[in-house]
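Weekly structure sync, notes
Attendees: PL, DS, HV (note-taker this week)

Item 1: RHL protein
DS walked through the input record. Source organism listed as Polioptila caerulea. Sequence as pasted into the shared doc:
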Amino acid sequence: MPSRYLNFRCSVPWLILLLQTLFLIHSFLGFPGAADIYSPSNFYPEFQDVNHMVLFGFGFFLMVLRRYGFSSTGFNFLLIVLGVQCSVLVEDLWVLLRVQQNEVGMRSLAKAVMSMTAVVISTGAVLGKANPVQLIVMTLVESIIFYMSRCINRTFLQVPEHLTLMHVHLFGAYFGLAASSRFPGPPPGLDKNRSTPKSDLFSMLGTVFVWVFWPSFNSILAGSKREAVLNTYLALAVSAVAAFMLSALTSKDGKFRMTHIHSAVLAGGVTISYTAHSIQHPWIAMILGLLGSVITILGSHCLQRCFNPALKLQDTSGVHFTFGLPAVLGAVAAVVLCVVQRGIETQWNNLSSLGYLIFVDLGAFCQTISTALITGWITGLILNIKLLKAVHVSKYFDDQFYWEFPHLSVGF
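Item 1 (cont.): predicted structure, written out as tokens:
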């Protein structure tokens, strides 16, 4: 057996055991609110939707590489179940330090699962290049930093709780991109970072699951749940229709491209995440879904040909144009819609309050994206230290390096 396998045997199980022991001690000591954790709640149906979306949907969504299917789904599951416990631990520590009020039970668990979307998105940027130890460390670091970013937005900028969580797409995309920039690029001629019809089919299955459950994700913590569900569904529907239309228009032979459909059908859910609860006219949600699909497909052409090579970004799953750009568009749309709505209500007489609203929204956006880029870049440096046993570039995008799966040597 190669020595590299023994190295992972000596590191991954013990790291997982150490973390799980820490989480068990936290649960045993009973941090604030532990007595109320089993209090009755009507959150379970929506929580189950979000859980399906994050675990099953994103697990298959990441199956874009022809020889990395086991790792895509398996590591996704491991990172989420570890990250959820870490998020709950961090939140309880914040309650203990009296930084925030206590929220226990299903609501706290739902926020932790939603926070893991950032980790899943970031994993897509470094997919196939990071080993399990690096992914676990990245999950812990990102969970803590994203929670701190949310606290800054909530405490200093007075952003509502559910809106701080909607920055998860923005944070995850740019944290992952910054981290991926510190990984060596794959060698020329390496063809394992391609997809096959089978991997594209599984990935599309995950996309459909994410699409179906996205209205629950946007509405689970919102005050106006009916509006959030309706607006999210309309935006998703329009973005899906636009994805097929734009795919045929932008392809050389006029055929649909699975990569376009795979990414652009979700753009509407990301774009409307900030405003789904407040939009009062369905046509606005539909326009946002259309714009989200446009920026995703056109952005994929520009980024892959110009932007990524110039900045040496290796975005394995295309998280920049699937989640990053639609999140930026959604943040800009939130500022515009908020200003227009408040201006109409006050008949444009109270410009100082409008300026304050713009400052808060732009401040939250800039704080989130700058924190993601800076900490992601630093995390990328940490992940490539010798202690974490970075994978050689010749072993990128290969299940066989981690899993007992002999027929992969023949081809998948």
